[in-house]
Amino acid sequence: FKQQYGMTPHAFLLNQRVQRAQALLKKGRAIADVAADCGFADQAHFQRVFKRHVAITPGQYLKT
User: Fold this and answer.
1) How many C-beta neighbours within 10 Å does residue 12 have?
2) What is the pTM of this model?
3) Other C-beta atoms within 10 Å of 25: how many?
């Protein structure tokens, strides 16, 4: 898997979730709803992962 995609399966899954979250946030969805819809355990976990991948928080992303 890592040879094919350049990352571990877990990293790939998180990346896919964050990309989906970005699309949902751009559509105006609430952060808490996006976190739940994308499979994160809670909003805090979502914010940590999102910030690690995008370098800004979901709230900051909404303002861009």
Assistant:
1) 15
2) 0.90
3) 19
Q: What CA dihedral angle connects 5, 8, 12 and 15, to 10 degrees? A: -120
Q: Which residue has tokens 């690690």?
A: 52
Residues of the chain where predicted confidence (pLDDT) is lower than 50: none
Per-residue DSSP letter, 27: T
Tell me, what's the pLDDT at 6? 94
Per the CB < 8 A criterion, the answer to whether 49 and 14 are in contact is: yes
- HSE at residue 45, side-chain half, CA atoms within 13 A, is 10
Q: Which tokens go with 60?
A: 């900051």
Categorise residue 28: left if φ over 0, alpha if ψ from -120 to 50, beta otherwise. Answer: left
